[in-house]
Amino acid sequence: MTAEPAAAAAVGHPAGFWHRLDDGRIQCDLCPRECRLREGQRGLCFVRRRSGDALWLTSYGRASGFAVDPIEKKPLNHFHPASTVLSFGATGCNLACRFCQNWDISKSRDMDRLLQRATPEQVAGLALRHGCRSVAFTYTDPVTFIEYVVDCAAACRERGIETVAVSAGYIHPEPADLFFSHMDAANIDLKAFSEDFYRKLCSGRLTPVLDTLVRIRERHDTWLEVTTLLIPGRNDGTEELRALCRWVVDHLGADTPLHFTAFHPDWRMRDPPPTPHATLRAAREIALESGLHFVYLGNVLDPDGSSTFCPGCGALLIARAGYATRRDQLDARGCCRRCGREIPGRW
Q1: Which strands, in side-by-side order, build the sheet including 258-262?
Q2: DSSP letter assigned to residue 106
Q3: I need a surface site. Which of 9, 32, 35, 239 has the fewest CB within 10 A?
Q4: Which among 341, 347, 342, 344 is positioned nearest to 325, based on CA atoms?
Q5: Burial of 109 (0-12, 13-18, 19+ CB in 10 A)
Q6: 241: burial class by Cβ within 10 Å (0-12, 13-18, 19+)?
């Protein structure tokens, strides 16, 4: 936590999920960090700040990185393939991953870098003007600016625009229910299957992320996909990958799409080399052998590892090369034309 004079920044938007402690501090109840703040202090996420006797979100309406992307870039492969999504984020994150691939935004402490301001209605209007089917809250973890996300999602739904969250899932159950009740789809980063990895490399814990994944599956009508960034020598061991894949099958279901993506040296982890293509392919084989039906490879060009195949008859359903997508044997109802098997997703 960092302290600053009370007048150093604008107060911001009222934040939810906090309570007062007997010692005069305020505890943020948004995520498992439970930051306990005195006057002028910010949580580790940097965007939730105590001012006076309340907690405030300092990044409300202050966005970074508006872009029109293919939905496959999130990555989401079973959610309106080949559609476009308006993507944006805000500064701050509630994990401290040493390998962060978006560190220039998530670790920013310069609020003036957020040059674009947008009301929820303006976000929805921008998506409409660009013909986007959905809006994605991404780049940094949107749970940290949950109040803005919820308001944007409501504005989008009024205009028939769907919503997508790209998140690490590090959030307490009550705010998770609010957050994911507003999401049509989510891709959750399962960074590893090791408490030691989360503690040493992310300053977090694995168990709350697993709890969030199960909560999404059991309580919400949110289309769910999962991504693991494979870092050589850190989370790519055979036994760990088998355990991760078995957990996904047992707790989320064999039809849950799982993405393995390639690491590149960045932020404070520059020693490991980029992930070899062979490592990604081996991970995919482990996942398929574990019973998962849809396993994808990302940050590499691998048509087989990017395409969707029918788990029943093996037919090519959706062909992908990079972000080029061609619907093949998947019909308009989301069924395999060859064998008739229904393929889970939002088509």
Answers
A1: 116-117, 62-70, 84-89, 134-137, 162-167, 185-189, 223-230, 258-262, 295-298
A2: H
A3: 239
A4: 347
A5: exposed
A6: buried
Tokens 């949107």 identify what position? Answer: 142
Cis bond before residue 303 (omega within 30° of 0): no
Q: Which tens digit of pLDDT belongs to each residue from 12-45?
A: 999 999 999 999 999 999 999 999 999 999 999 9
pLDDT in tens, 54-70: 999 999 998 877 999 99
313: left (phi over 0), alpha (psi -120 to 50) or beta: alpha
Bridge pairing between strands 316-321 and 308-309: antiparallel
Q: Which two tokens stand for residue 196?
A: 């030691």
Task: Please tell me what DSSP assigns to residue 189.
Answer: E
Query: Which residues, 6+ apart, have CB-to-CB distance to 220 below 8 Å?
Result: 177, 180, 181, 183
The candidate with the shortest Cα–Cα distance to 100, out of 265, 279, 345, 286, is: 265
pTM of the predicted model as reported, rounded to 2 decimal places: 0.94
